[in-house]
Specification:
- The chain has helices spanning 10-14, 16-27, 45-53, 66-79, 145-158, 185-195, 206-216, 231-237, 255-262, 266-272, 277-291, 338-356, 358-362, and strands at residues 2-8, 35-39, 58-64, 84-87, 90-93, 98-100, 103-108, 111-117, 135-141, 161-169, 172-179, 200-201, 221-225, 246-251, 295-301, 316-323, 327-333.
- The protein is α/β, with parallel strands linked by helices.
- It has three domains: 2-117, MoaB/Mog-like domain (Molybdenum Cofactor Biosythetic Enzyme, Chain A, 3-Layer(aba) Sandwich), CATH 3.40.980.10; 135-201, ACT domain (Alpha-Beta Plaits); 206-362, Maf protein, CATH 3.90.950.
- The strands form four sheets. Strands 2-1-3-8-7-6 form a six-stranded mixed beta sheet. A five-stranded mixed beta sheet has the order 14-13-15-16-17, with helices on both faces. The chain has a four-stranded antiparallel beta sheet with strand order 10-11-9-12.
- A hairpin with a 2-residue loop joins β10 (161-169) and β11.
- α5 crosses α6 (185-195).
- The longest helix is centred in the last third of the chain and has 19 residues, at 338-356.
- It is globular, with a radius of gyration of 24 Å.
- The two termini are 36 Å apart.
Length: 363
């Protein structure tokens, strides 16, 4: 069954922050989304799009504005050969069988349609559509794609599941598991963890997983960021419970702040430059010293599109991961635009954190 989302209304298209909030809510209910479509108020193609979608089995969420809520109800009534009626002060198709303020659920043939009235700056009305698909997400570290497929595909056949692989950064694979008719998700995951000891995290949200593990062991985490500009901190603080384990992040773009806030020595900055192994190692040490945390991560690099050189082209990033007993610092080269380079830097730093104490995170 397909899972589709439609936004109807110019205001929703223009407000990117509110759109992201809506999609986070929908994704919390759906294991995956097959398509996302956008229509302005006067777009006549919406009727044809709805008609095409509902000819196939689908779970469909339609997000509307106050202006388009009634219009969508009228179009659905036409597509499903229904009439509109007034229920709970909402003009909606008469066969809508579940409704709450600002949201209703309509069943048509083998499809479910949830129409939601969204208002900027307000909480989203309840999502009434469910998702009974049997899927799970795991994360696999320190294994390349070819070897992961060689090891896990035979296991997937044994437990009647299908695997989808995505490489987030080098050495970090995100795997979506689909259970077939007689598939056993839990047994597959348990066997994968046994086969790949200290490599598998059986959780969809790695940030939430790290927060839980650190909290369970009363451990703290701090960062020193340069080119990532606070993105590493956001990776964790976007999750509930981060305050219990995350001390903070020092965003030190200038050499003056690297020296004054993190005690990076001027000799290293002059000799090697801010984007160097020597400086990023001192940054992680400084972050740990000022916060008294148990783990520290630091990032410094050239995110671009300008600022690169022959020796350090755009995409050059140094990352240091430190615990109280170990430190690992490495140079990377990421490709893409500025934001994608920053996002890859964050993911690689998270991977290095996991590797700096594998007993804690993979046990």
């Amino acid at each position: 069954m397909k899972r589709d989302v439609i936004f109807v209304g110019n205001r929703l298209i223009l407000n990117e922050a509110y759109e992201r909030y809506i999609l986070r809510n929908i994704k919390s209910r759906f294991s995956s989304i097959d398509s996302i479509s956008y229509f302005e108020e006067s777009d006549k193609d919406l009727f044809l799009h709805l008609d095409a979608l509902l000819k196939h089995e689908s779970k469909l969420v339609i997000v509307t504005t106050k202006t388009t809520f009634t219009i969508v109800g009228k179009l659905l009534s036409t597509v499903t050969a229904d009439n509109q009626v007034l229920k709970n002060n909402m003009l909606i198709p008469s066969r809508a069988d579940i409704l709450e303020n600002g949201s209703y659920l309509l069943n048509h043939n083998s499809s479910e349609i949830n129409v939601i009235l969204a208002t900027e700056g307000k909480a989203l009305p309840p999502i009434l559509i469910g998702d009974e698909s049997r899927q799970a997400i795991i994360h696999l570290f320190n294994e390349d794609l070819a070897s992961a497929q060689t090891l896990l595909e035979p296991l997937a056949q044994n437990f009647d599941v299908r695997l989808e692989f995505s490489l987030l950064v080098e050495g970090w694979l995100k795997i979506r598991i689909h259970a077939r008719r007689h598939g056993n998700l839990s047994q597959f995951i348990a066997s994968a963890k046994g086969l790949m000891h200290h490599k598998v995290i059986a959780a969809a949200n790695v940030a939430a997983f790290i927060i839980e593990r650190l909290g369970a062991h009363n451990k703290k985490l701090s960062f020193a960021e340069s080119c990532s500009g606070g993105s590493l901190a956001h990776f964790f603080t976007s999750q509930s419970g981060a305050s219990a384990v995350f001390d903070g992040s020092l965003i030190t773009y200038s050499n003056v702040l690297k020296a004054n806030w993190l005690a990076v020595d001027d000799e290293s900055l002059d000799a090697f430059g801010a984007v160097s192994a020597e400086v990023v190692m001192q940054m992680s040490e400084g972050a740990m010293n000022v916060s008294f945390s148990d783990y520290a991560l630091s990032i410094s690099g050239v995110a671009g599109p300008s600022g690169g050189s022959d020796a350090k082209p755009v995409g050059t990033v140094y990352i240091s991961a430190r615990s109280k007993t170990a430190v690992h610092t490495e140079r990377f080269h990421f490709e893409g635009d500025r934001n994608y380079i920053q996002e890859q830097s964050v993911l690689m730093a998270v991977k290095m954190l996991l590797n700096v104490d594998r007993e804690l995170f993979f046990a």
